[in-house]
Every structure is written in C-alpha cells, then in structure tokens.
Amino acid sequence: MILSTISHFQLLCCLVLLLILPLPLYSADPDPLQDFCVADLKASASLNGFPCKLAAEVTSGDFFFDGLSKEGNTTIFGSAVTPANVLAFPGVNTLGISMNRVDFAPGGLNPPHSHPRASESGIVIKGKLLVGFFTTNNVFYSKVLSAGEMFVIPRGLIHFQKNVGEGKALAFTAFNSHLPGAVIVPTTLFASTPSVPNQVLTKTFQVGDDLISTIKSKFGS
C-alpha cells in the first residue's frame, strides 16, 4: 500500500514537471519582474539578461537611442546592419524587444543568416528588396517588397534580403528578444576562429580544396 502511494506520488510529480518545464520555451525572453531594468553593461550577462543599473543611476537618456538615425557603412556584401539590441541600447534589457537598421548599397545583400533567439518582422522604408527564407523542410519562400511593405521571419530560420532596385535601399527590422543573436552563414563557415577544416567544407559543398581556400581568402581567413 505504501509503495503504491509512493508510486502515484512520483507519477504526479513527473506529470507536473512535464507541464511546467516547457512553458518558458514559448517566449523568446522571460517576462520582466519590474517596470524596467536598464542594463549594467559593465557586469556579466546572466540567464535573464544583464543585471540592472541602480535606480539612482538611471537617467532619461537610458530610454532613448538615436543610433538608427544614421546610415551605416556597407560591408563587402553591400549592406550594413546597425543594431539597437541590449548591447547598444541598455534600456531594452529584459523587455524582449530590439531593432536593427539595415542599409543596402545598389545590389547589396544582407547574406543568409538566422536569429537563434527571436522571430523577426521588418518593413522596407526605401527601395526594393527581395526577401526570402528557408524552412527546415528546404522550402524557399520569397517576395520582392517595396517601400511600406512588411515581412516576417520565423525564429531560427535562415533568411536574407537583397537589394533589387536601382538605388540604395533601407529597411528596419524588429525582434522579440533584447539580444536575438545572428548566425551569418558565409562568415560562420569561411571566417570562423579557429577555421573550419577544408576537408569538411570540400565534402559539404562537393568542390575542390583550391576553391575553398579562395573563398576563405575573401574573408581574410
């Protein structure tokens, strides 16, 4: 009788754990427990973000950010991403939000990448962009968007934006995480530290060693 009672109790505990444990996985960032928690970037990040600055040290400037007002300098891909995440804008700490400004030179590309901690929505402000993403079943969805049109990218899926207009282009993107992260496919594969062994890449892409070395050289690797 006692053993039966213990078994039922253990089963009940397991069921409760199964119900409770998945709940935090449904949101990108945990819910805040106070009005705000301006990040103390001098401290180390914890599971729920950065520790809060002391309330006496918080100023109005902590809640305003002008970094997205300036055009970025484009990279070798012809694009520039200016982030407004917790590292650049400490006021968004624990709020589960952030933004990017993405500038495109003519023909510029925001190369294939993913955000492991957030879904993304975006709006084209200027120009014309080809926006596309890939599902885990290798289905490709894409559309050419003009100014005023929006897009959404599900969390963790590889996606890109390509300027297909005649001049420069501009887009703003938003995330449901104060630090969405970015895994940029070309730099991850060809410019990581330490570098990915050539034999891994030659086998992956079914090409010769010389071609892999040439691609790596483009990224200074």
Explain what you see:
The chain has 221 residues and is α+β, with helices and mostly antiparallel strands. 19% of the residues lie in helices and 26% in strands. It has four helices and ten strands. A five-stranded antiparallel sheet has the order 1-2-9-4-7, with no helix packed on it. Strand 5 (128-134) and strand 6 form a beta hairpin. Helix 3 (198-205) crosses helix 4.
Compact description:
By secondary structure, the protein is an alpha+beta fold.
Work out the radius of gyration.
22 Å
Largest sheet, in brief, is:
5 strands, antiparallel
| Count of extended strands | 10
Low-confidence stretches: 15-26
The secondary-structure class comes to alpha+beta
Number of helices: 4
Strand order of the largest sheet: 1-2-9-4-7
Specify the helix fraction band. 10-25%
Average pLDDT, rounded to a whole number, is: 89
N/C terminus separation: 68 Å
The share of residues in extended strands comes to: 25-35%
| Anisotropy-based shape | globular
Q: Write down the secondary-structure element order.
A: HEEEEEEEEEEHHH
Protein name: Germin-like protein subfamily T member 2
